[in-house]
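Good morning C.,

I know you're traveling, so I'll keep this short. The sequence:
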Amino acid sequence: MSHIVTVQEAVTAFGDFMEPTDAELDAIEREMPVILADVDLLDAYIVTLDRTPTELDNRRIRRARRRALAARLALLNQGAGASMPGGAA
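The tokens, ready to paste straight into the viewer:
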């Protein structure tokens, strides 16, 4: 009979320093509107996977796509404003 040995120590040995840093958490927080807009867009696409999209489905997809693009644009503009001090373009 062979014994099964767990590898708990090997798996959790790197746990202390694998937490996200404050800078990474801040970046995720800044990108959260884009992430949520992309989730809404995926939801709109998923609804139409097993059927022919209706006009209402098409509108929902268009609205979700516009929100996703607007969220990306806002994130880019926010990043561009942060990198150019004094409002220089």
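Safe travels,
E.
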